[in-house]
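Forwarding these from the shared drive since the link keeps breaking.
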Amino acid sequence: MKWIASTIAALAVYATSGSISPAAEKPNIIVLMVDELGYFEPGFMGGKKIQTPTLDRMAAQGMVFTHLFAGAPVCAPTRACLLTGKHSGHTSVRVNDGGTPLRADEVTIATVLRKQGYVTGGFGKWGCGGRGSTGVPEKHGFDVFFGYYDQVHAHNYYPPYLIRNSEEVPLEGNDGRTSRKTYSHYKIHEAALQFIRDNSDKTFFAYLPYTPPHGSFRIPDSDPAWALYKDQPWPEEPRRYAAMCTMIDRQLGEILTLLQQKGIDKKTLILFSGDNGGANYFESPEYPRGFHSANKHPETGLEYRGKKGELYEGGVRIPFLAYWPGKIASGSKTNLLCYFPDILPTLAELAGAPLPAGIDGISLVPTLLGRGEQKKHDFLYWEFGGWVAVRQGNWRAVKPNKSNEWELYDVATDPSESKNLAAMHPEIVARMQEIARRESEPVRPGTFANRDLHERDRRAKFGYHDDPSYWVPANPSKILKKSDLPKK
C-alpha cells in the first residue's frame, strides 16, 4: 500500500546517529493513547495478524517499555491516573461510569505544561468529567479539547455531534441511529493534525486519547486499512478491529510526516500506548485469549492472566513506546517497573516544571535519555471495583473483587500468575496488605453543577439526545444497544 511505503520512507529520514544529550529546549509532546489495544497485538510486541508498520519502525528507532503498566484496568480510572500522576488509591475517578469528574482543584499534565508556556490540546475520548461538571478538560489545563466527554457517547462512531470545549459540534448526516455519513474519528484526527499545524511554531502538548479500536467495531469500507483485511478468512468483527488498529497506525504516520514537513520532528517527543489491558476480544474455543491474542504471545505462548476489568497482569499490561529522534537511543528497550502515574513527572521534568503536590509518579527522564540515575518505585499499587493489587519487585499480590483472600505470585518464575504462594509466604502477604491499607484513601470525586448536558451526551449515543424519556444506566456493564434502554 502507498501509505505504508510513504510512512517507512518518512521514518527512515528520522533515523539518527543516536547521540544522547539533554534537551536544549522544551520539547513538543504528543501522547497518543489508543483505547483497548492488547499487549501482544501490535507487530512490535509480537502480534502476527494486525499490520502496524509505523509503530514497528518507531519501536525499532525508539524505546520500548516492556513493564510500563496502565493506571487501572478500565478506561476512565486509567485516564485519571495518566493525567494526574496519581495511582488509583488517590485519584478522584475510580469508577468507569463514563462521567465521574475530576475535582476542581486537581492538577493535570496540561495544567503543568500550560504554566510553562505550552499550547495544550486534547482530541479523542476524555472520560474524566461530563459536561456541567468540575472535570471538563477546559477546566484542567486544556486550551482546546475536541471529541467525546462522556464514555457512553464515545461508543458510537456516527453520533449526531461531538464536543469542543463543552459546546456541541454537529456531524453532518448522522442521527446516531441509521443515518451514518460522518465518521467521528476522522474529524477528531483531522482536528489533531490542524492543532499541530497551527502551533508548529510554538511549543505544544497534544494529548490524543483516540477511541479506536474500542466501542462498536466500525470503520468505513472506503478506508485504506479495511482493504487489507476485508478478504481475510476471519469473522467480520475481528477484521474490523484489525482495520481500526491499522488505521490508527496510518494516522500516526501522518503525524510523523507532518512533524517532518514542519521541521519539528527532532523537537517532538511521542509517547504511544494502550489505555488498559486487552479485553480478549472475539474469544472462542479455538482462541480462548481472543482472536488477536491480546494477552498471549502468538509464538512463545507466554500468557498473562486476566483481562480488562481485572487486576491480574493481563488487566494492566499495555504496549508502550517512546520516540524522540536524536534524544532517545534507537532500538532501546527497558524492563523498568513503572506505570501511568510516572508520565506527569516525566513530562514536567522535560518542560522544566515544578511537580504538583501529592503525586505518586517518578520521572522516567534518566531512562529515556540515558543520563543520570533512575529512581525506582518501591511498589506499584492498583485498586478498582473491589480488586486490589500490589507489585513489589517480582512479588505480586492480588485480592480479587469477590474474595477477601489475598493471592501471591512470583512473576519472575510464574508470569502467568498460576501458582498462588500466599500460604508459603504469609509475611510477604502481610507486607503487601499493609501497603494497600496505607495507599488507599477514601475517594473524593468531583461534582456536577447540572447534569442535563451530560445526560444529553449519553443519550446521543443512541440518537435520542433530544428525548429525555430515554435514559442510560449510570453504570452500563456492557456496550448498550437501543433495545437495552428502558423508557421512563
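-- next protein --
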Amino acid sequence: MPQIDLETWELRVHGMVEEEFTITFRDLLDADLIERHITLTCVSNPVGGNLAGNAKWLGYPLRDLLARARPTAGADMVLSTSTDGFSASTPLPILQDDRDAMLAISMNGEPLPLEHGFPVRMVVPGLYGYVSATKWVVDLEVTRFADKTAYWTDRGWSEQGPIKTMARVEVPRSFAQVSAGTSTIGGSAWAQHRGITKVEVQVDDGDWEEATLAAEASVDTWRQWSHEINVEAGSHSVRARAYDPDGVQTEERADTVPNGASGWQSVQFTAE
C-alpha cells in the first residue's frame, strides 16, 4: 500500500487544457472545500452484495479544478493515475456538473485512512469506482476516450460505469429463522445521483407491496427501507426492487462484468 509524504505530495493537471498546473496538499487545505454524504459502490458487487458503503467526505470540487485548467475542444475524459500506477477514465462532463465530484482529503471527520487513499483520492457520485475512485491520486490528464484507456478498460470492462439502481435485502439474512406471525424486514437501496423514489417487496408469490423509506440524505446516498410482513410457519422467500425517477430497476440478471450486476435479490428464510 502506498506511503505518501504530505509535504511532497503533488497533483499534476495537464493534457488538453489551456492551463497546466500542479497543486500541493497545502493548496487543497487553503481551498474552498465541500462536505458531502456519498455512497460508493464497487462494480464487483453482486446482487445483494456488501461492496457498497456510505461516508461523509470532505474535499475540493473537481469542477473548480477543471475550471481553472479550462479543457479544450474535443476533450471528453479525465485519466486519473495513482502513485501505484492504477488509472481510471472518467467522463469529463460528469466531473464538471453539479454532482460534487471531489478530490477528497477527509472521511467521516478524520484524515483519509491509508486504505482509502491517504492523502487524496477521487470521489465521484454515480459512477462505479473502477472509472472514478482513484486512490493516492497524483495525476489528472484531460484527454479523449479515443486516445487513452485505463487499467480496467484494458482488461475488458466497459468505458462508462454508471451505477445501476439496486435494492438490497438485509433483514432477514439468507436462510435465517424468524418468528412466525408479524415481523419487520428491511434493507437499503441506491441510485446515486438519481435518487430512490420507491422500494417494493414481495413475499413468496404474493403481491408487490410498497415499503417505508427512511429520510433521504441526498440523491447521492443510499436509502434504508423497511416493511412489516405476516408469515405462517414454514419456508418463505422475499424479493425487493427499487425505483428511481426513470422507473423500476431491471429484473434482468447480469454478472458484474463488464459494467455491474443487475437483477432482483431474493432471500430464502424460515418462520417458526
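The chain has two domains: 10-155, 166-271. The radius of gyration is 21 Å.

- D.
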